[in-house]
Structure formats: C-alpha cells, structure tokens
UniProtKB/TrEMBL annotation:
Protein known as: ATP-binding cassette domain-containing protein
Pfam families the UniProt entry points to: ABC_tran
Source superkingdom: Bacteria
GO molecular function: ATP binding
UniProt domain ABC transporter: residue ranges: 5-254
Family listed: Belongs to the ABC transporter superfamily.
UniProt subcellular location: Cell inner membrane
Alphabetical UniProt keywords: ATP-binding, Cell inner membrane, Cell membrane, Membrane, Nucleotide-binding, Transport
Membrane topology: Peripheral membrane protein
CDD domains for the chain: ABC_NikE_OppD_transporters (cd03257)
Length: 271
C-alpha cells in the first residue's frame, strides 16, 4: 500500500490549567509515538476518556500544533514555499466533528457554509464554486435544493451529511472524523456508515475514525489503534486485535463490547 500520511515522534504537552494560583489538573502529555495512514485505508482510534484520541485527531488535521515531532503528508504539494505547502496539507486532511449542529454556522445557508472553504482556499469563480457545491451535495446524498436551507431546517443525519460535504469540498485525501456517529440514531447511523464506505470506494479516501462504538469499528476499519493516557498501547489489523488482543486494556474494551451483543442459548452470538 501507499503511505499517504505519517506522524514521527509525535508529541503534544498541554499546560496544566491554574485556578487561584493552584494547579487544577495535571498537564496532559500525548506521545511520543509514530503512526502511518495508507491510501484508501480506514484506521480507527479507540480508548477511554482522556486517552488522547481527540487531541490526536486535531493534531493530524492541523487544528492543533504538536509540541515535538512532525506530521508528513506524502504527496507533492503544488507550491514551493513552506507556508503554502503547510496550508495545502491542511486542505488535504479535513475533519468532521461529533455534533454537526454545533459546527455549522446557524446564520448561513448550506450554500453559504460550503462557499466559505472554497473562497478561502481556491481561486474558483462564483459560477465554478456553485457547480462544485452542487456536485458535492449530490455526492453525500442531499438535494440541490438543500443549498438554500439553514442548518436548523435539517435533520441530524442531514446535518452530518453537510459536515461531510464541507470536508469533501476541497478534494482531500484524508478525512479525520471525531465520533461522527455518536449523535445519530441507529437507522441514520447505518446510512451514514454506508455513505462513508461508498465515498471511500469512489474517491479512494483514507479515513481516521475516533470512536467508542466497536461494532462500527469492526465493520469499517482496516486497522485499529488503542490509546491510553496519551500513548498507543496496541495497534494492528482490526480482526487480529478483536480475536487476539494482547494488552489488558484492549481486552477489557473488546470484552465490554462483546458483552452487549445478544447471545443465543448455546452461547453463540446471534447474527
């Protein structure tokens, strides 16, 4: 496979917040560790609260800067300057947040929301932007008429599709999704999973999923990364880790997931 993104000795250290001159919490440290993402691959990152999953997601897409180490995008940038190259890399790694309703500007129509990244990052004319927006709305299963809707006029599932459209609008190579299914009901969640799989087949996208839902992880992820207290404690092929987890924390996470799966009277899982 072709490596499209890699993190080398990636480290992030947060400052311990202070309150009335005293430290309220200890500083959080992520890493150092290495991580690679292959082309058209889905990598799931799992772990408990404060394990560092969301921090890692924000580092990968450039929303936060590492304290040490580097993130390398393995494609030739169309620009020569370092600043332009970094900006281009940020366009190539886009993020979808857990609650779309909170990440979409309520004062803008869906068309306005999708115009913004194109205006800021491309030289497309207004007519070209309109054409691009219409195409991406169709890609995510929305209608052209949704262009004129405001976010509050859409269902949770439709809002998540708008968030997906905003991530796709700059033709990225990698999409980082932080708990994208958590706020969706089961039927809509299933539709969104199928949409993501279809987009990956059609566009050759790589996905990085932060998720607590191990059922979805097992269904869609090629590889799984397990985090605890800012460290990668285990990583490997998804089926391998589900069948033969080595680390105690991985074993507990998978055991907790399997305990929720209905069992037949003979002890076998129900299909």
């Amino acid at each position: 496979m072709t490596t499209i993104l890699s993190a080398k000795a990636l480290t992030y250290v947060s400052e311990a917040p202070r309150r009335f001159g005293r430290r309220k919490h200890e500083a959080f440290k992520l890493g150092p560790f290495d991580l690679t993402i292959e082309k058209a691959e889905t990598v799931a990152i799992i772990g408990g609260n404060r394990s560092g999953k969301s921090v890692l997601a924000r580092l990968l897409c450039g929303a936060m800067q590492p304290t040490d180490g580097e993130i390398i995008f393995h494609q030739d940038a169309p620009h020569s300057s370092t600043a332009a190259k970094q900006q281009w890399q940020k366009q190539q790694v886009r993020m979808i947040f857990q609650r779309s309703s909170e990440s979409l500007n309520p004062a803008l129509t869906i068309g306005g929301i999708l115009h913004e990244p194109l205006k800021l990052n491309t030289d497309l004319s207004y007519a070209q932007r309109e054409e691009k927006i219409a195409a991406v709305l169709s890609q995510v299963g929305l209608l052209r008429e949704h262009y004129f809707f405001y976010p509050h006029m859409l269902s949770d599932g439709q809002q998540q599709r708008v968030a997906m459209a905003r991530a796709l609008i700059l033709n990225p190579s990698v999409i980082v999704a932080d708990e994208p299914f958590a706020a969706l009901d089961p039927s809509v969640r299933s539709q969104t999973v199928n949409l993501i799989l279809q987009l990956q087949r059609d566009l050759g996208l790589s996905f990085v999923f932060i998720s607590h839902n191990l059922g979805i992880v097992r269904h869609i992820a090629d590889r799984m990364v397990v985090m605890n207290e800012g460290q990668i404690i285990e990583a490997g092929r998804t089926d391998t880790l589900f069948r033969w987890p080595k680390h105690e924390i991985t074993q507990r996470l998978i055991s907790a997931h399997q305990s929720l799966i209905p069992q037949a009277s003979d002890g076998k899982r129900l299909k």
